Amino acid sequence: MTESLAITKLSDLANPTRFMALVARLVPWMAGLTALLFAVGLYLAFSTEGDYQQGDTVRIMYVHVPAAWLAMMCYTVMALSAIGTLVWRHPLADVAHKAAAPLGAAFTLLALITGSLWGKPMWGTWWTWGDARLTSVFILFLMYLGLIALNRAIDDPSRAARVSAVLILVGFVNIPIIKFSVEWWNTLHQKASVLRLDGPTIDPEFLRPLLVMALAFTLLFFTLHLVAMCNEILRRRVSAQRRMSARMANREAAQ
Amino acid sequence: MMALLTRDLKLSLRAGGGALIGVLFFTAVVAVIPFGVGPDLNLLARIGPAIVWVGALLSALLGLDRMFQTDREDGSLDLMLMQEHPLTLTVLVKCLAHWLGHGLPLVIASPLLGLFMNMDEVAIGATMATLLVGTPALTFIGAVGAAVAVALPRGGLLVSILVLPLAIPVLIFGVSAAYAAVEEPTPFLPPFLILVAITMFFAVLGPFGAALALRNAGD
User: Fold this and answer.
1) How far apart are alpha carbons A102 and A143 in whole angstroms?
2) CA closest to A161 among chain B residues
3) Do B162 and A150 touch (CB under 8 A)?
4) Closest alpha carbon to B87 in B219, B216, B206, B207
5) Angstrom distance (rounded) from CA A44 to CA A212
6) Which residues, other chains included, contact A205 with Cβ-Cβ below 8 Å and sequence gap of 6+?
7) Could you report the per-residue pLDDT of A98-148, keeping only the tens digit for each?
């Protein structure tokens, strides 16, 4: 019963007007909460102790790690909405994975830039091709850009959505590779120290600001994603109305 | 199915097909490298397997965009979509035909290019073996890209952009297996077997994804 309720709620949202009303109610709250979490997270990030070895550069972690998590989560969200596109033909799913691609690219770029800023003082190099984590994240960045290019190349939005959904699902093989790259190829990048089966190995002093920042980044992503989806819906409405008015103008000219 | 295989093979081998162009491109790419890095034979021998692999990857990308596009232009793609055989199987056969027409010539041409690169016999043999099991994976991955971009008028460049990130693991393991055969302490088999595994994985995923994309890309 609850499942069918969830399904009806979800199919209610297929009506874009209803979805946009919901977003208009949600977004101010989410934006406020995001700003609050960022304030707390940044305060914690700068007030806690530096690492005894790394000094102040450890604070880069509070941006780098959440951005990298978000880069992977964004692709997972896109893969889920790709399934929504192909299986249920849910119109919102089309919009969702199209709107998420630029966000994912931005977060991936942020993770790469902060990573190399952190790598220079710690590893002595901006970038290395020998490390599997670095290269696989770079591949993820390329895939985001490819998806954006594909979406721009096809002018019919629903066909673009279905075709890029297939590509998103095929490209999903990269996500487990990124996650486990530090376990399989033990080179420069350190292993996972927060999401582990036997509990985090990171000191609570660093863990607290990290988790707050991760929560703030996640909320930031969802806020931006909802707003981007609304923008995409509005953009489609504008182009549909333009097309309609052009058709009307044709008809009037013919009379 | 056999009829489809022979038809596609004939189309790619006879005039207007891309098989010869692919090999020529491969040769040209590899032949350009010595002009770029200088005629130092030791250096060329060291980077040889990598160069041959990169050349093969690029020329495998070159022929991809025509994989389904010619069929779409003359309407036979619609027939394939409507027939009773599962579309995945049809795509698999088309992939095999495409590999026989475009991938196998690259494998056959690679020893000659290896000689250009001053590689020794073991390295040439290893490069050829890795290309033999690695290029089918490129074709299977490329089939997805080709199917996704089938309806685009100028899809060729886009196919390369979409396929290249997914093809990188193939390149990594192909090259590392080829190097492992030459350099003494590292064993040849593990990366080679991973390469075989990648090929078999994409032999399943590739035709499936391509069939899905072809059904959705239709007008």
Assistant:
1) 11
2) B216
3) yes
4) B207
5) 9
6) A48, A49
7) 899 999 999 999 999 988 888 887 777 777 776 778 888 888 999 999 899
A160 at interface of B, judged by CB pairs closer than 8 A: no
**Chain B contact for A113 (CB, 8 A cutoff):** no
- Of B141, B134, B137, whose CA–CA distance to B174 is shortest? B134
| Pick from B162, B169, B219: CB nearest A167 | B162
For B217, which of A163, A170, A173 is closest by C-beta distance? A163
Half-sphere exposure of B25 (CA within 13 A, CB side): 17
> Among B194, B139, B187, which residue's Cα sits nearest to residue B172?
B194
Q: How confident is the model at residue A1 (pLDDT cuts 50, 70, 90)?
A: very low
ipTM of the complex: 0.71
Q: Choose among A210, A214, A133: nearest CA to A174.
A: A133
DSSP secondary structure letter of residue A57: G
| A24 burial type by CB count under 10 A (0-12 exposed, 13-18 middle, 19+ buried) | exposed
> How much of chain B exceeds pLDDT 70, in percent?
96
Instruction: Locate the domains of chain B by residue range.
Output: 18-217
> What are the residues whose beta carbons fall under 8 Å from the beta carbon of B139, sequence distance 6 or more?
B60, B95, B98, B99, B102, B103, B206
Q: Is A143 on the interface with B (CB under 8 A)?
A: yes
Per CB-CB distance under 8 Å, the chain A contacts of B169 are: 177
Cβ-based contacts of B160 with chain A (< 8 Å): none
Global pTM reads 0.79
Chain centroid offset of residue B66 CA: 13
Can you read off the two tokens belonging to residue B176?
């590392």
**Residues of chain B neighbouring A135 (CB-CB closer than 8 A):** 168
Q: Name B7's Cβ contacts closer than 8 Å, sequence gap at least 6.
A: B97
A139–B158 C-beta distance less than 8 A = no
Task: Give 3-state DSSP helix, strand, coil % of chain A, rounded to 5.
Answer: 80, 0, 20
Greatest CA span in chain A, whole angstroms? 82
- Which chain A residues contact residue B144 at CB under 8 A? 166-167, 170
A154 in B contact zone (CB under 8 Å): yes
Identify the DSSP state of A189.
Answer: S
Query: Cβ of A135 and B168 within 8 Å?
Result: yes
Q: How far apart are CA A168 and CA A160, in angstroms?
A: 12
Q: Kindly state the DSSP code that residue A173 receives in the 8-state scheme.
A: T
